[in-house]
Amino acid sequence: MATPVEVPKLGNSVEECIIGRWLKGVGDTVAAGDPIVEIETDKTTFEVTAPVAGKLLATFFDEGAIVPVFTNFFVVGEAGENVDAFPAEGRGRRWPQRR
Q1: In this structure, are residues 14 and 43 in contact, taking their beta carbons and an 8 Å threshold?
Q2: Which of 10, 39, 40, 54 is deepest in the core (most CB within 10 A)?
Q3: What are phi and psi of 85, to 5 degrees?
């Protein structure tokens, strides 16, 4: 089952994060707990990990995009699953990368 992942809220005053660097690419196989992306706030850099094993099905933002917390920014699931039900919503730039 496809699992969307939201930008986490990393502190009481954090309302958005910057997508620093994608560590995995669309189509890569990932294990639960694998780091997928680095995100940045004004005070720290943090790795967001895959919550489940599968394939990285989609990423919704470019590196450098400013994305509000609680916004879907990647999806992990089984190859071929449809990710259209998990659009990224918010002020960040959308950058769908699907294979």
Answers
A1: no
A2: 39
A3: -80, -5
How far is residue 1's CA from residue 22's CA, in Å, rounded to a whole number? 22
* Contact (CB, 8 A) for 3 and 75: yes
Return the closest-CA partner of residue 34 out of 10, 50, 19.
50
Tens digit of pLDDT for each residue in 27-52? 999 999 999 999 998 888 999 999 99
Task: With beta carbons less than 8 A apart as the criterion, state whether 64 and 75 touch.
Answer: no
Q: Is the pLDDT at 91 greater than 90, yes or no?
A: no
* DSSP state, residue 8: P
* Residue 48: burial class (beta carbons within 10 Å; 0-12, 13-18, 19+): buried
Residue given tokens 């699953």 in the structure block:
81
